[in-house]
Specification:
The chain contains 8 helices and 21 strands. The chain is of the alpha+beta class. It has 2 domains: 8-89 and 163-242, P-loop containing nucleotide triphosphate hydrolases (Rossmann fold); 247-354, Elongation Factor Tu (Ef-tu), domain 3. A hairpin with a 7-residue loop joins strand 1 (11-20) and strand 2. It is globular, with a radius of gyration of 24 Å. The chain binds adenosine-5'-diphosphate and magnesium ion. Magnesium ion (MG) binds at residues 51-52, 169.
């Protein structure tokens, strides 16, 4: 593994055993993670799992029930003690841009600059607009800009007061897929150039992986895994992470040894050893790219679903009622519904969990 998580001395942000919510009880439960200087972290999870609630606590809009939030080693939130949002040096960017409609782009960006004189302010605003490639639109109004441009203005506005940390709450979800991908890479580059740390909230795994150094996968207000993207995909900590991150599903199997499982797809060998006893019943993760076409194979599951996607086709195969899985083939491998197709498992990353 070449990637590594940062060492404690590098931490910019530390979230320890955080619980918070609205009224009685907590929506976010016992959440802990830490972000090092210059890194971009992500809170990834399905809608309603508590991502925005964590951001509100980080920004200082929501008091916390347990734990502590520290920024640059200073405590900014404790139960009963919440440093005011404007004292935190944390910038925010929201899904709906939230620009002031009656102010020009330059005025929007300069809005939070209170201590600079006119000339300084103007220079700083123009530098920021240059950074987000909008210098030519300085005197325009928000309604004259596209969604992607407005979001870049929102980013420039959040960056203007030179925050220590930027929080981005689903900033690209109002944009179409292409623009989203481009803008997420642009924003990553801007943040990296400035060396500003950020936390991105998203339910989109592609976006999380493209933009972030470390990702927290959340479910029901709790962190399931905090890790680099590679590990989330190849070494998911549990079933939820395995199914939420990447495609795939589980088939039943039985352990023959620490790295070998017997299933209806035959004997599957992996490159990692588990601690289970031989005979343990397990669920094995099969991702669509783990299955290859092999004319010589005796394994011939039946096609039960077929989704054509241009360069590739996603097939759903069935061996028996318990064993169904998906496979992604290049689209010149064309099979009909009900056809029995010879295939083989080719998974070096054997991921399986003991059946409960
Ligand atoms: P996410 O951002 O992951 O979609 P949220 O953090 O917005 O989720 O919401 C988490 C939970 O808290 C949800 O069940 C939601 O209904 C609840 N919630 C969010 N905002 C409020 C609020 N202002 N008052 C009461 N409950 C809220
Ligand atoms: Mg949200």
């Amino acid at each position: 593994m070449t990637e590594r998580l940062a060492q404690p001395a590098d931490w910019l942000l530390e979230v320890n055993n955080l619980s918070c919510g609205y009224g009685e009880g907590s929506v976010v439960k016992d959440v802990s993670f830490a972000l090092s200087h210059g890194d971009i972290g992500c809170l990834l999870g399905p809608s309603g799992c508590g991502k925005s609630t964590i951001l509100r606590a980080l920004a200082g809009f929501l008091p916390i029930n347990t734990g502590e939030i520290r920024l640059q080693s200073n405590s900014i939130s404790l139960p009963g003690r919440t440093l005011a949002p404007e004292k935190r040096r944390i910038g925010m960017v929201f899904q709906d841009y939230a620009l002031f409609p009656h102010l020009t782009i330059a005025e929007n960006v300069g809005f939070g600059l209170r201590h600079e004189n006119r000339a300084e302010k103007r220079q700083k605003v123009m530098e920021l607009l240059q950074l987000v490639h909008l210098q030519d639109l300085a005197e325009h109004y928000p309604h004259e800009l596209s969604g992607g441009q407005q979001q870049r203005v929102a980013l420039a506005r959040a960056l203007a007061p030179e925050p220590t940390l930027i929080l981005l709450d689903e900033p690209f979800s109002n944009l179409d897929a292409d623009l989203r991908r481009r803008l997420s890479l642009d924003v990553r580059e801007i943040l990296k150039t400035l060396g500003i740390s950020a936390i991105l909230v998203t339910h989109d795994q592609q976006e999380a992986f493209a933009m972030c150094d470390q990702v927290a996968v959340l479910k029901d207000g709790g962190i399931q895994q905090w890790d680099v993207p590679y590990n989330l995909y190849h070494e998911p900590a549990n079933r939820f992470v395995a199914s939420f991150v990447g495609q795939g599903g589980f088939i039943p199997g039985k352990a023959l040894g620490p790295d070998t499982i017997e299933s209806e797809l035959g004997v599957i060998h992996g490159n990692r050893a588990y601690r289970w006893e031989p005979g343990t019943l397990v669920d094995v993760l099969i991702r669509p790219d783990d299955i290859v076409y092999d004319a010589e194979s005796d394994l011939k599951p039946r096609v039960v679903e077929k989704t054509f996607a241009g360069t590739s086709t996603l097939y759903r195969f069935r061996c028996s009622e318990d064993t169904e899985f998906e496979a992604l083939f290049r689209s010149h491998l064309d099979f009909y519904l009900g056809e029995h197709v010879p295939v083989r498992v080719e998974a070096d990353h054997l991921i399986a969990f003991e059946r409960i």
